[in-house]
Specification:
The chain is an all-alpha fold. The protein has one domain. It has helices at residues 2-5, 9-25, 38-44. It is flat, with a radius of gyration of 13 Å. The mean pLDDT is 86.
């Protein structure tokens, strides 16, 4: 689906690479939240 809607595929690939770097770093306080999931965002912000 991403390939269908992405405007700039190079930016998508760069974003994927950055997410892999963050995951590999395994920082204990790191929390990645999908911006399209309002329930997860509320939980991450302590609102739910």
């Amino acid at each position: 689906m991403e390939r269908v809607i992405a405007y700039d595929w190079q930016k998508v690939e760069a974003n994927h690479a950055r997410l892999r770097e963050l995951r590999a770093a395994a920082e204990p306080d790191l929390l990645l939240v999908n911006a399209h999931d309002p329930q997860l965002l509320d939980r991450a912000l302590g609102r739910g």
